[in-house]
Amino acid sequence: RALGRSKHGNVGAPQPFYSCYAESKDGIDWERPRNGLFPDNGGDNSIVFKGFSNSGGFVTIDPLAPPERRYILTNMEWFDEQSGGVILAYSADGLHFRYPTDPPQPVVFGHSDCSNSLVYNPFRRVWMVYMRGWHAAALNWPNGKVNCRRRVNYAESADLEHWSEPQTVLSPDELDTND
Questions:
Q1: Which residues make Cβ contacts (< 8 Å) with residue 146, sequence separation at least 6?
Q2: Cβ atoms of 53 and 84 closer than 8 Å
Q3: How far, in whole angstroms, is CA 118 from its chain's centroid?
Q4: I need a surface site. Which of 19, 71, 81, 108 has the fewest CB within 10 A?
């Protein structure tokens, strides 16, 4: 089946990106166990998650969460040309991830085209997500995209459900390149 397209990239199945599982005893030599969770044309694989339009999942462990939400996968999804954002999927074992709602709902709305990093700050007792932020600049990429000055944005939450508006925490200056 042909992949749907929007101005933001791929929309609809089959997904062009997957999150895969690997394990290591020493952090140097890694193995990718074949788990058979998501059959693919390439045969048996280590895929553990396929999103709706994207998957660049960053996994965090919450040791205080209920067992079914112990592992948190931070993903970016586009549902159409106008809406999308950071969405969280959960797992009890780190292999079987599912969105908590159907259809999935972003916890932070907005554009971000990279792996978004979720960490817990025990001193402030908040979850922090770092994501790619865009800024409209008076420059155009060859493909006509106007938002070409990349930033790093930050949002936080005490409960993983209610999030602050993303704020820019790292921004290029006029001497930096677009990327």
A1: 136, 137, 139, 140
A2: yes
A3: 9
A4: 81
